[in-house]
Amino acid sequence: MERERRNILIVKLSAIGDVIHALPVSYAIKETFPNAHITWVVEPPSFDLLSMNPCVDRIILFQKKEFKSFRGFAKRFFPFKHELQQERYDAVLDLQGLFKSAAIAFFARSNIKLGMCNMREMSDRVSKPVVGKNFNGHIVERYLDTARAIGCRVDEVKFPIEVPDDEARKAQAIFEHEGARFDNPYVVFAIGANWVNKRWSEENFAELADWFYGLNVIPVMVGAGVVDAQRAQAIAKQTEIPPVNLVDKTNWKQLAHIIKNARLVLGGDTGVVHLAAGLGVRTVMLMGPTDANRNGPYGQIKNAIEVDRTCKFCWKRVCPKGDDCLERITVKQVERKILSLK
To answer: Would you say 190 and 196 are in contact if contact means Cβ atoms under 8 Å apart?
Structure first.
């Protein structure tokens, strides 16, 4: 594609971490083609995050849950199709590579439909997989190979995120309400993850929290949902001084501002930690079922701690052996990693 792009459609629906990994594609498009108009189809949980991206001109929400019933499909399909087809696109980039994204790409009006190299569920029948030089590399680079395929230079890998001023002020108010201040050093613990085998133990988080307090650094717990709330309570009960608890108290915009001001963010292979890496904050990621080469903190792969198990990188959501995957990553090991960071 030689002429400048006028309309580009990106289909990257979920999960939070995956949407974060795809953000540099939008920057690469705008960096190469400043006048391009980018439309992004995404599911509701990632809307707040994507709305902070100044490179995206239009967001189309895909209400996946409502498409699961016959009544919901009948009600939603034609309005969604109409919204999708309001534009004719010079290129469609399917960065999800699944049946649901392929269905969206199929109905998008474009003669050029490309996807990432690891397409599944017959999505390669709709969009042509781009097998670039990074097909075995980090997922961010795999996504960027699709941008390169439409002529993007990718001079700089940048995660375009701008926190609105009003949300930054709200974040500060929430932070101070919980007894902390931005001008005091603090670290962020991402205590949860969607996969149970990506979660470090509550006991380990508690011990590390006490260690940070000993260094006059405040540990701050973040997360969302019932499981994370229960984990936060369990961690607090096992500490000498409970960490600041922000679980379920912020949206993604406020959380991004809190992360930007942190000295360090630590957790498993999950969205919060990937957001921190994208924002350029020092990041330590604890990894077991997934590997750093593909999913580690982008730009900080050396800060990933991979579990010492022969079965690591199994890519299974639940351990078939019933083991605590991250159990062998000790607090002392994490402390040494943190002290080694520049």
So the answer is: no
